[in-house]
Specification:
mainly alpha, 4 helices
């Protein structure tokens, strides 16, 4: 898959969703290592907690609403990454991904 360098809020969320969809298709095909790479790339797009603000011409920290959007988009990537790790017999990494979900959404039951 191709990872596009994106900076602004809309581009990052769109690319995160694209990478998640690619990962899901790869997972359905049984290509867990590739799917995991896609989910990891998606998560990395928002891991630094910043967007590029064109008006300010600078990176700015997520606001409260942006954090909600990012969390809603990234939790499925963490969950899917955990599933990939389990399929790859990497229980420690699966646990780490599941713990990342619980840091974002303590009420997650998946």
């Amino acid at each position: 898959f191709l990872l596009v360098q994106v900076q602004d809020r809309g581009e990052r969320l769109a690319e995160l969703q694209r990478l998640k969809a690619v990962g899901s298709e790869l997972f359905r095909q049984g290509r867990c290592r590739h799917a995991l790479s896609s989910y990891t790339a998606a998560i990395s797009l928002v891991a630094d907690g910043t967007w590029y603000d064109e008006a300010a011409r600078a990176l700015v920290a997520f606001g409260e609403q942006e954090r909600v959007e990012v969390d809603a988009a990234s939790v499925p990537c963490y969950l899917n990454a955990a599933a990939c790790h389990l399929k790859l017999n990497d229980a420690r990494s699966a646990l780490n991904a599941a713990e990342a979900v619980l840091r974002v959404d303590p009420d997650s039951v998946k």
